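Q: I'm writing up a methods section and want to include an example of the input and output format. Could you take the sequence below and give the corresponding predicted structure tokens, formatted cleanly so I can copy it straight into the document?
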Amino acid sequence: MKVRYVALLALACLLSACANVQDVKKREPVFYGSSAKSAQEYTRCVAASWTGLGVEFVQNTLSNGYELVQNGGMGVEAVLTVIYWRNQTEASLVTRIASRDQRIVQAANLCL
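A: Here is the clean output for your methods example:
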């Protein structure tokens, strides 16, 4: 009985630790900026930088921009949302653990 309880508790902890895009996007951004570049140009720059850093991610197309999603062993680690709005490109980077990897924040900033 005690072993079953411990196993169920461990499973619940493991499942609750896996984050998805919506979970991560609820957090406060670690980076926010705007650019005169198009959303496509800015996203392409960040994607190239992240690839150069060895960051694995997937790119999703949004109705008015793009999203770069970095996955890790515990689910989604970071989400960069790039939106073209009011004649400028807005970028917002949210991470599951704010201090995890400043290199991806720096890359997003340098591409502005």
